Amino acid sequence: MKNPEKLLETIDSKSLTISTDSLDISFGEISSMYEGGELEIRPAYQRLFRWSNTQQSQFIESLLLGLPIPPIFVIETEARKYELIDGLQRISTYLHFTGSLPKQDKLKLSHCDIVPDLNNIVIDELSPALRIKVKRSYVKMYIIKKESPARIKYDMFKRLNTGGSLLEAQEIRNSTIRFLSEQFIDFIQELSNDNNFRGCLGYVQDYLLERQFDDELVLRFFTLKNADLKRYQQERLETLAEFLTKYAEEVASKEVKFDYDLEKSVFTKTFAILNKTLGKDVFSKDGKSSAQFHAFHYEAISVATASIINQLDINNATHCEQIKNNILELKQDTKFKEATENKKQKRTSGSDYLTFLNKRIVIATQFVSKNF
């Protein structure tokens, strides 16, 4: 049994590292801070504004009715400005309603179910008294002071935003990991725009790309190629999403070595040869124009190809033809088909996930490396 006193001591020591403050602030003041550059919303975070027109309208209706509003959280920067870490949907909705949101017209209210008379109007059609009421609506703002460690700020952002069902895991990573290191996320996003890599993603649906699935695929490549996944599992991480986040954290905080130049070279060479051999069909089920992208094929084939990349010459027609034939043969292999079936225990979560992942990669490596 753990020592209760020791546990209390540990919690107290961690608590002392977090310096916070709070204040009640009106949405009018928040808008002024945003327009004056005193409240910063990172561009990567701004892209996550996804409330529907109905959600936005009902939030404005709540402000007009004086209903309680959940608090927002900001981080104090070295320049004494505030950087938003939670409250994007609420603040952006207010800015949209008042016409302060860049490149967007003023919000026209709809689906207000408590006061239906608000529907189909914009802020200019409210009486002066109601406009003032919205402007003076208050919300509690919690401030994480600049003295707090970077890791505390990162953990705070991640925990506040992970629960949002509107956001995909990679969208959250792209925003949160920046608190640990800008370099790694910039690197991931640079490679996601590599022409050969994009050429292999021809069957990935647009809505997934809009939610930064391409960035996640780049991170998957490096995680599955480099990370100590067995250790992650021993630490009670069982899902692919957890593996990806853990590895991104370790690279960003420099807990593990990551040679950016070398890794970029391996990535670009790997996808150059995959794009040249089968292009958008390389990660389809049968290597033909099935118009379907299979993530299990992506994981296994990309990592397998990377493992022998130093033996391959993209300008050697024989090499390219051999890789193409090896991959097509792999896709017909019974064991590989079984290992890449879209069944529950073989998906991206659960205690058996790592077993099937390793099996897919081992089989793929055996085939892809044939005759090299």
Provide a short characterization of the protein structure.
The protein is α/β, with parallel strands linked by helices and 372 residues long. Helix content is 54%, strand content 7%.
Describe the structure.
With 372 residues, the chain is of the alpha/beta class. It has helices spanning 4-16, 27-35, 43-46, 53-65, 88-98, 128-135, 150-162, 169-176, 182-191, 195-199, 206-210, 213-226, 229-234, 240-252, 260-277, 295-307, 317-332, 334-339, 353-368; strands at 20-26, 39-40, 72-76, 82-86, 138-144. It has a five-stranded mixed β-sheet with strand order 1-5-3-4-2. The termini are far apart. Residues 163-167 have low confidence and may be disordered.
Strand order of the largest sheet: 1-5-3-4-2
Number of strands: 5
Q: What does the overall shape look like?
A: elongated
SSE sequence, one letter per element: HEHEHHEEHHEHHHHHHHHHHHHH
Report how far apart the termini are. 55 Å
State the low-pLDDT regions, or none: 163-167
Mean pLDDT metric:
86
Strand content: 5-15%
How many H/I helical runs? 19
What brief labels describe this structure?
alpha/beta, 54% helix
Helix-strand blueprint:
Layout: H1 4-16, E1 20-26, H2 27-35, E2 39-40, H3 43-46, H4 53-65, E3 72-76, E4 82-86, H5 88-98, H6 128-135, E5 138-144, H7 150-162, H8 169-176, H9 182-191, H10 195-199, H11 206-210, H12 213-226, H13 229-234, H14 240-252, H15 260-277, H16 295-307, H17 317-332, H18 334-339, H19 353-368
Parallel strand pairs: 2-4, 3-5
Antiparallel strand pairs: 1-5, 3-4
Helix pairs in contact: 4-5, 7-8, 12-14, 12-16, 15-17, 16-19, 17-19
